[in-house]
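ligand=pyridoxal-5'-phosphate
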Amino acid sequence: MPGFELWGAEERKEVNELLETGVLMRYGFDAQRRGIWKAKELEQAIAETIGSKYAQLTSSGTSALTTALAALGIGTGDEVIMPAFTFVASFEAILSTGAVPVLTDIDETLTLDPAAVRQAITPKTKCIMPVHMCGSMADMDSLTVISRQHNLILLEDACQSFGASYKGKHLGTIGDAGTFSFDFVKTITCGEGGAVVTNDEDIYIKCDGYSDHGHDHKGSDRGADLHPFIGYNYRISELHAAVGLAQIKKLQGFLAIQRKNHAHLKEALSQIPEISFRKIPDAEGDSCTFLSWFLPTEKLTADVAEEMKQQGILSGNFYWYNNNWHYIRKWDHLKNQSALNNLNDAQKQALQKLQHTSFEASDAIMSRCISTAISLLWTEEQLEEKADKMVSAIKTVLEKNFVIAG
Ligand SMILES: *Cc1c(COP(=O)(O)O)cnc(C)c1O
């Protein structure tokens, strides 16, 4: 799954080329940089790869989300609908703009349930933010219809799904804007980094300025730049961009390996009739970074996770329901409004309410779900062995439970 697994000569070459000039900043220093613009080159490569008009690199996926939200005009008083299963960065970015994250139930796509989204809409809703979790996608047709009917912005958090697509369009390019993360464990990595992509020139220009102190970037003298609006420093460095440039050239290779390993593992698990799989709205577009599967009950799933732990094969298998980072159940710091600075009243009220909100529908899915990370490094034998061991652990638990139940 993560690009760091296939680190090599290509990355070293890009970085070394940059070290020759020593210009580690993406803007300015035109004479010293001898024509080397790694960040610009990577932005162009991202746009070409996914078929978007514009790409703006940032220092992280989190700052890409913050930048996109700001460029879309989302802030204090606005509500953003986001899924209850995601990485914490999704609500962090929303809170940082002053807006209210409205946590909403997921369905078996492991992201926003369109019916739950309809119910979550209020007069304050400004944006729907599906998160394309674990390399696969939301039901974008339904979410697009809802966003048009209610005149809402559609922002795709595609941080985990670079290279995945839906009905021929790359994830991130379907809504008003999309974001990617290139942190160390994502599909391709810069070490740290992120990007906002959009087909809208106005949104792009705002992202470009917002991520660099509001600079208009119109001339070649940074000191003479104007500042049409307030921005921050969410710039990526040339060093990080250089790594990403080597990685993006390997993307198609990564995807091919993932799809092959994913298919093999899925076939092995399919032999167990009690197992079902995540709903994938467009299976061809799945980037296959993970295989997500369900057991019939919470107890069986918890027992399988425990059995895999006992057998030393839990590593790479994520039982998100019990994990502190990805699911509302364990986000006590959010529910307790444990912020260092003062949140606004609307935010406080919304987070307070989360303490008593039921996420029964999401619980019923997440408590039965395990996602297996697909490695780029597995040999045929290792993959075979992994599949056999997983099948055996699952069967052991099913047999035990069957005996007790019978
Ligand atoms: C990784 C991730 C982010 C944030 O990316 P960083 O680069 O780590 O800041 C945002 N959303 C999702 C769903 C992610 O997985």
